[in-house]
Design brief:
This protein has 251 residues and is an alpha/beta fold. Helix content is 27%, strand content 25%.
Length: 251
């Protein structure tokens, strides 16, 4: 299994902090957010990491080189990083040659959340916080008849269960062709301003995707300055022991 981390974006809504560095390098608890990912992935036996970079990619490359433990990172570049995240997933298509965990790069999360994803009995699975109801533009996991039918900010009228998506998707190697077909169709239509989640409609139709519920475990997507404040104040103190594994700030 490998991890593909999508870290190419501009982080426009955090411009005050991302003018000089990508969002994944914002420090939380004295070290870059990206290091928290490494600290969680390596103990789970996911040593191969593919980072899709774009905006200020040289900063990310320097940060990876400074990580205090050995980590096997391959870099791929999304040259259309000012557009939607679909371009980042499409840029990673050549790296999807194994069971893969696709991860947004802007989430602070308890390591137990990742454990649930990696050890799930579902071959293809999303994480869902079933305690969250949509208030504004949360990306929601929508289930009907026991399987995921959508991962989108636009919730359909009919569903059996809905909850916020954490931003992590596990796909078995055998289902990768269906995933890529779903994405390629939108890319060929020129829909490069689309978020990759909205490009997965056909994938969810063709491949059974389950969920792991993580309600009650601490996590937060970092989109706005107030999210960063909450991450430091409320989420970080509740995280599990993997935060003690390596890592230091960039100084």
């Amino acid at each position: 299994m490998k991890a593909v981390i999508l870290a190419a974006g501009l982080g426009r809504r955090l411009h005050v902090l991302t003018r000089h560095r990508p969002k994944c390098l914002i420090e939380i608890g004295g070290k870059p957010l990206l290091y928290h990912y490494f600290d969680s992935l390596l103990p789970l036996g996911v040593p191969r990491i593919c980072l899709v970079v774009g905006y200020k990619q040289e900063c990310i490359r320097e940060a990876v080189a400074s990580y205090p433990s050995t980590v096997d990172v391959t870099f791929l570049v999304n040259h259309e990083f000012e557009r939607g995240s679909i371009g980042s997933l499409w840029a990673a298509r050549g790296a999807l040659d194994d069971d893969v965990v696709i991860m947004d790069a802007d989430v602070l999360f308890d390591p137990a959340i990742l454990v649930r994803l990696v050890t799930s009995s579902h071959s293809n699975v999303l994480l869902m916080d079933e305690t969250v109801t949509q208030q504004t533009e949360e990306c929601m996991v929508v289930m009907r008849q026991g399987r995921v039918v959508a991962l989108s900010k636009h919730v359909p009228d009919e569903y059996d269960l809905v909850g916020e998506g954490v931003g992590f998707l596990r796909v078995e190697c055998g289902a990768v062709p269906q995933l890529l077909r779903s994405v390629e169709m939108r890319v060929n239509q020129g829909l490069l301003d689309m978020e990759y989640e909205d490009a997965l409609e056909d994938f969810f139709r063709d491949v059974p995707v389950g969920v792991e519920k993580i309600g009650g475990l601490p996590w937060i997507e970092i989109d706005f300055p107030e999210d960063l404040e909450r991450a430091e104040r409320d989420i970080l103190p509740r995280l599990g022991g993997s935060l003690s594994l390596g890592g230091r700030g960039l100084g």
